[in-house]
Automatic annotation (TrEMBL):
UniProt protein name: ATP-dependent 6-phosphofructokinase
InterPro entries linked: ATP_PFK, ATP_PFK_prok-type, PFKA_ATP_prok, Phosphofructokinase_CS, Phosphofructokinase_dom, PKF_sf
Top-rank taxon: Bacteria
Source organism: Paraflavisolibacter caeni
Binding site for Mg(2+): D107
Cofactor(s) listed: Mg(2+)
Active site (catalytic residues): D132
Domain Phosphofructokinase positions: 7-283
Binding residues annotated for ATP, in chain numbering: G15, R76, C77, G106, D107, G108, S109
A GO term, aspect molecular function: 6-phosphofructokinase activity
GN (gene name): pfkA
Amino acid sequence: MQKKVNRIAVLTSGGDSPGMNAAVRAVVRTGLFYGLEVFGIMRGYQGLIEDDIFKMESRSVANIIQRGGTILKTARCKEFYTPEGRKKAYEVLKRRGIDGLVIIGGDGSFKGAMALSKEYDIPCIGLAGTIDKDIAGTDFTIGFDTAVNTAIEAIDKIRDTADAHDRLFIVEVMGRDAGYIALHSGIATGAENILIPERKTNINAIIDSLVEKERRRKLVNIIVVAEGDEIGGANEVARLVKERMPNIDARVCILGHIQRGGSPTGIDRLIASRMGYHAVECLIEGRHNVFVGIQNNRMNYIPLDSVGKKKGTISEEWMKIVKILAS
Ligand code: F6P
């Protein structure tokens, strides 16, 4: 039977990603449009446990669609992953009469939501918000496009100076478990090599090809490394290269958290707005405990209990493109 919702709350959880604010705005304004009361929860599950909750109006989300970060702040809350933590969270929700929850975050945040909804029958809807794009069932996650564009802008600049000095640059991008930022930004900047956690890295073959390129005076090379690559990041790659090529002029650049900030791109604003709107529709229509993704430009509703990291699904064709275009 359809469970009616009257009071919903929204939170952002895990690593922030550009576009989270656009998603919060969409949830709040859609909820109000349908006559629901909408609450904002500060600092993710931590704020839920601590009852750090406030009522949101249309004005609460004015002028935020273009802002990075999250006005609700975010946290990685260990306590919520314990039954005791979730009991505290449920008691807060019950006391406040909140009967539906929208969680904007990654796979870890969705697992927490699933546990809460199973134990206490609180309808939960997830919105895929992570720069890593490491969730199966969606072509986009909120923040990924912005992070890729930030990395592209940085790598383009790095190529200018690499070219001026005839240098090898090893650029590390984010992605603890997933290589999508590395792959997309690497292809878009013409990187000579892209190292990602989903693939075995043959460092000897890469060094062999650098030696061969040195012989034919191709000295400007960019290697993009995802932080979670099996070699252990850009510094380790540089160490291994220098071990065999002590005279090579090489530099390391770790892009780090700049990839998480900044004004969201048009794509991120758009998918965040669509996902936020559909999250509220899901709550109203009784399509509960799913996360909202977009596949082939259509909304895709994936049960929260089937959420998994999207590891190992890198297309062979893309890897072939990397190889051919960088030769
Ligand atoms: O949100 C994903 C992510 O940016 C990963 O790419 C990265 O490994 C991690 O978060 C960094 O987390 P923190 O901000 O806690 O250092």
